[in-house]
């Protein structure tokens, strides 16, 4: 699956009081939207794994987006 990243994206994922909080700039939100659209076209079980080592801001929690059904 090809993922398109908007230039200058910033995405931060934190767990706060048991809730996942995603904070992103405009480019980060557009990048996530692109990823979700790409994932929707993939078969069930496909997933995107984001973490501080490949996309997220330092200190972010890992984020896994998975297609079901």
How does the SSE layout of this entry go?
Layout: E1 11-16, E2 19-24, H1 26-40, E3 47-50, E4 63-66
Antiparallel strand pairs: 1-2, 3-4
| Series of H and E elements | EEHEE
The low-confidence runs, each spanning 5 or more residues with pLDDT under 50, are: none
Number of E strands: 4
What structural class is derived from the secondary structure elements? alpha+beta
Query: In DSSP terms, counting alpha (H) and pi (I) runs of 4 or more, how many helices?
Result: 1
Shape verdict: globular
When the domains are counted, the total is 1
**Assembly level:** single chain
What are the main properties of this structure?
69 residues; alpha+beta; two-stranded antiparallel sheet; 4 strands; 22% helix; globular
Fold and architecture overview:
It is a single chain. The two termini are 18 Å apart. A two-stranded antiparallel ribbon has the order 1-2. Strands 3-4 form a two-stranded antiparallel sheet. The mean pLDDT is 97. A hairpin with a 2-residue loop joins strand 1 and strand 2 (19-24). With 69 residues, the chain is of the alpha+beta class. The chain is built from 1 helix and 4 strands; from the N terminus they run E-E-H-E-E.
């Amino acid at each position: 699956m090809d993922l398109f990243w908007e230039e200058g994206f910033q995405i931060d994922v934190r767990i706060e009081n048991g809730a996942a909080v995603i904070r992103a700039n405009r480019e980060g939100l557009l990048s996530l939207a692109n990823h979700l659209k790409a994932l929707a076209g993939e078969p069930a079980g496909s997933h995107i794994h984001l973490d501080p080592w490949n996309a997220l801001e330092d200190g972010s929690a890992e984020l896994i987006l998975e297609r079901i059904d």
